[in-house]
């Protein structure tokens, strides 16, 4: 090789989420690892994207997204999230929530600044923060209810804190932050004058517990960036359409950074999402109900093989614990299950501040077609309840 690589990528590796997903594809297994969400997208969404292609909607869009999409997002966040946003100045569409998150971080944080993140966390949040030169301070949440204490939260703030990251419903825990928890976060963010960045990509997938957007609190509006996107809501994870809602001055910078990184989100697919945002409430209710059935089916399966599922209040992931003696650690468990019954999961250790906290947990994704999830559950049941494979 001609020269050395950058320090920032030295310890950066392919995520366990992708690693086990790729391994699963090689052996033709059932993929409950990466949240690929391989279910059919709504017909109206597909039809609108196809007709946008036929209409030659093929060139760069506005750097913050096409006007009809920003208008549809403004209507949606007002109605569903309780957030008033000007589509002209306070909404930026980008290439999926990961790229939007990067633009937000680049707009708010200088190298060495700190972000507060709840553990377990979505590894892309933490890896992107680090890749962009930032430090992370964690607040540990613990199963089964993913609580933390006010003292632990308060202690995470320092002179260098620039953002506190909320992910509700959370990946991988499925925690849905309650109003009181969010109010406490707002109070601390005000006290320390930091930004609140909230990733709400699973906002429509809750099971009885209401989704509350921290950006809807009047006290928080001027310091909150709300990130969401189309991936999960319309089962189009590969389309890469996400967005941020933020105060105008910040939103302008998010748009400019996003333009430099990616220019714009794919034009015809933005048109597809406009159609998605016109779907009736029944679409979202039906989706949440369907995930509720899948969640319960997976939880029953896991109990029947001696796992302890932490049944989520939201999202489409489930962490489940296993007896420490059953497998050496979470990676061993993932590899063994993939090899023995052809079902891919993610080691819990991939999601924790201290990997030891997840050493006896696996993450299962149930965003699957029913037939595929049934096949996955049937295979998991073959593992039985007793076996100890730690040796
Ligand atoms: N959000 C999905 C997950 O957690 C997919 C992530 C990804 O592929 N990077 O599995």
Structure, described:
The chain has about 400 residues and is α/β, with parallel strands linked by helices. It has two domains: about 140 residues, Aspartate Aminotransferase, domain 1 (Alpha-Beta Complex); about 220 residues, 3-Layer(aba) Sandwich (Aspartate Aminotransferase, domain 2). It has twelve helices and 13 strands. The strands form three sheets. The chain has a seven-stranded mixed beta sheet, with helices on both faces. Strands 9-10-13-12 form a four-stranded antiparallel beta sheet. Strands 1-11 form a two-stranded parallel ribbon. Helix 3 runs parallel beside helix 9 and helix 4 crosses helix 8. The protein is globular. The two termini are about 40 Å apart. The mean pLDDT is about 95. Bound molecules: glutamine. Glutamine (GLN) binds next to helix 1.
Write the layout of secondary structure elements.
Elements (H helix, E strand, L loop, with lengths): L15 H12 L2 E2 L11 H12 L12 H15 L9 E4 L1 H13 L5 E6 L3 H9 L3 E6 L9 H6 L5 E7 L11 H13 L3 E5 L24 E6 L12 E4 L2 H15 L4 H10 L4 H24 L3 E3 L6 E5 L8 H12 L1 E2 L1 E2 L13 E5 L4 H12 L10
Parallel strand pairs: 1-11, 3-4, 3-5, 5-6, 6-7
Antiparallel strand pairs: 2-8, 7-8, 9-10, 10-13, 12-13
Glutamine binds next to α1.
> Which percent bin holds the helix content?
25-40%
What small ligands are held by the chains? glutamine
The CATH class of the largest domain, by name, is Alpha Beta
Count of helix runs: 12
Question: In one word, what is the shape?
Answer: globular
- Tell me the radius of gyration: 21 Å
Main sheet makeup: 7 strands, mixed
Strand order of the largest sheet: 2-8-7-6-5-3-4
Q: At the third CATH level, what is the topology name of the largest domain?
A: Aspartate Aminotransferase, domain 2
**What structural class is derived from the secondary structure elements?**
alpha/beta
Percent of sequence in beta strands: 5-15%
């Amino acid at each position: 090789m001609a020269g050395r690589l950058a320090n920032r990528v030295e310890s950066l590796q392919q995520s366990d989420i992708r690693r086990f997903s790729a391994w699963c594809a090689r052996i033709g297994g059932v993929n409950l690892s990466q949240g690929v969400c391989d279910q059919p997208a709504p017909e109206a969404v597909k039809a609108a994207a196809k007709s946008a292609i036929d209409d030659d909607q093929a060139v760069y869009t506005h750097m913050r997204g096409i006007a009809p999409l920003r208008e549809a997002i403004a209507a949606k966040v007002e109605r569903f999230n309780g957030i008033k946003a000007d589509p002209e100045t306070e909404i930026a569409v980008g290439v999926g929530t990961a790229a939007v998150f990067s633009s937000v971080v680049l707009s708010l944080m200088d190298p060495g600044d700190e972000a507060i993140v709840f553990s377990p966390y979505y590894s892309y949040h933490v890896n992107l923060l680090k890749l962009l030169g930032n430090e992370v301070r964690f607040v540990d949440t613990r199963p089964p209810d993913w609580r933390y204490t006010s003292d632990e939260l308060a202690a995470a703030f320092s002179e260098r804190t620039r953002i506190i990251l909320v992910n509700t419903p959370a990946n991988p825990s499925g925690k849905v932050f309650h109003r009181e928890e969010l109010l406490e976060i707002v109070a601390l963010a005000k006290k320390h004058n930091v930004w609140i960045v909230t990733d709400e990509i699973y906002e429509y997938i809750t099971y009885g517990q209401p989704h509350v957007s921290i950006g809807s609190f009047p006290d928080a509006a001027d310091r909150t960036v709300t990130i969401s996107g189309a991936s999960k809501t319309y089962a189009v994870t590969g389309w890469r359409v996400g967005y941020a809602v933020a105060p105008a001055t910040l939103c302008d910078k998010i748009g400019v950074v996003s333009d430099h990184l990616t220019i714009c989100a794919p034009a015809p697919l933005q048109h597809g999402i406009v159609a998605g945002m016109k779907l009736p409430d029944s679409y979202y209710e039906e989706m949440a109900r369907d995930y509720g059935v899948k969640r319960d089916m997976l939880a029953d399966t896991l109990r029947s093989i001696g796992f302890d599922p932490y049944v989520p209040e939201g999202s489409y992931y489930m962490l489940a614990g296993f007896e420490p003696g059953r497998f050496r650690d979470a990676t061993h468990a993932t590899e063994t299950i993939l090899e023995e019954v052809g079902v891919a999961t993610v080691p819990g250790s991939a999601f924790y501040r201290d990997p030891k906290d997840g050493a006896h947990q696996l993450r299962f994704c149930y965003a699957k077609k029913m037939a595929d999830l049934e096949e996955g559950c049937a295979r998991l049941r073959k593992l039985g309840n007793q076996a100890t494979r730690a040796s």
